[in-house]
Design brief:
The complex is a heterodimer of chains A (about 210) and B (about 100). Chain A is about 80% helix and about 0% strand. Chain A is mainly alpha-helical and about 210 residues long. Chain A has one domain: Cytochrome c oxidase, subunit III, four-helix bundle (Four Helix Bundle (Hemerythrin (Met), subunit A)), CATH 1.20.120. In chain A, helix 2 packs antiparallel against helix 6 and helix 3 runs antiparallel to helix 5. The radius of gyration of chain A is 20 Å and the shape is elongated. Classes of the chains: A mainly alpha (about 210), B mainly alpha (about 100).
Chain lengths: ~210, ~100
């Protein structure tokens, strides 16, 4: 059956997948939204890590901020290459799709590499829950718990997104371009959402 | 599936450049508002919301979606807003 056939209600049959994906994204909004509401509320109510002043101690803050800003650029660029990959697939340009999807995957992997260096930097300065430094400052300890919970949860989503993109790329080898474009669109929806989450995490965790 | 045109590709590039500019604005705003807590938080969240809107509207294709997708999205935004509004008064006025 032709996937693009309109149903009696005016919906194309291939639109069902997008509806499902938007419901999935809704569940992710609720997950991250609950974490972020709790984080904002905690920092508003706690004078030791008040919202509006950077919590990070001075040592190592600027290199960490530079890495986080680099990761913001990396993810935004990966969103652009992803939208180009979808566009190429819709134009039945298999080589263009592959090149842009590979760029997206490389950039996503680059995000994780930079993130791991940033974690190493922070741990070397004693910025982790349970460290002597954190124990001496309850506000810092609370902040670090949120920082690692939110960034690790986000990194887990990046890993899932990379796997999804990898499957879309692998399946594009022989499949008809209409199927390639649909898979790319689904993978792209998720990847862009992962980018949106980072857009909120970056200022909330590093700048205020 | 929707086909994209040359103008769409130019638009996508424009959105990407706007996102980069807004990231620079986020960094600049944090430097300029140091010490002004409410201003710093408000500006950061406003810029982040504009960036998320650009990504959602153009890259995630919301500008071409049916009303149903907006309703699904609205459920999430409303639920998170209720959560924030429910938590903030207690956290703001009762310090722990």
């Amino acid at each position: 059956m032709d996937a693009a056939t309109a149903t009696e209600h005016g919906w194309r049959e291939d639109e069902g997948g997008r509806v499902g994906l938007w419901f999935f994204i809704l569940s992710e909004i609720l997950l991250f939204g609950a974490f972020l509401a709790s984080y904002i509320g905690t920092r508003l109510g706690n004078p030791d890590c008040a919202l509006g002043t950077v919590v990070w101690p001075e040592a190592g803050h600027l290199p960490g901020l530079a890495m986080a800003a680099s990761n913001t650029l990396i993810l935004l660029t990966s969103s652009y290459t992803m939208v180009r990959a979808i566009s190429r697939a819709e134009h039945a340009d298999r080589a263009g799709f592959r090149a842009n999807m590979i760029a997206t995957i490389v950039l996503g992997a680059g995000f994780l590499v930079v993130k791991s260096f940033e974690y190493a930097l922070k741990i070397s300065h004693g910025y982790y829950p349970g460290s002597e430094l954190a124990a001496a400052g309850p506000g810092l300890s609370i902040f670090l718990s949120y920082y690692y919970a939110l960034t690790l949860l986000h990194a887990l989503h990046v890993i899932v997104g990379l796997a999804w993109n990898g499957v879309a790329l692998y399946a594009a080898a022989e499949a008809p371009m209409a199927d390639v474009a649909r898979r790319a669109e689904y993978a792209g929806l998720y990847w862009h959402f992962v980018d949106v989450i980072w857009v909120f995490l970056f200022p909330l965790l590093y700048l205020i | 599936m929707k086909s994209t045109s040359q103008s769409d590709e130019s638009l996508n590039l424009g959105v990407y450049l706007a996102l980069l500019a807004l990231t620079a604005a986020t960094l600049a705003a944090s430097l300029l508002t140091q010490g002004g807590r409410i201003m710093a938080v408000s500006l950061a969240l406003i810029i982040a919301s504009v960036k998320a809107g650009l990504i959602g509207f153009y890259y995630m294709g919301l500008r071409r979606e049916r009303m149903m997708m907006f309703m699904i999205l609205a459920i999430g935004v409303l639920a998170v807003s209720v959560l924030l509004v429910g938590i903030l008064p207690d956290m703001t006025f009762r310090r722990f």
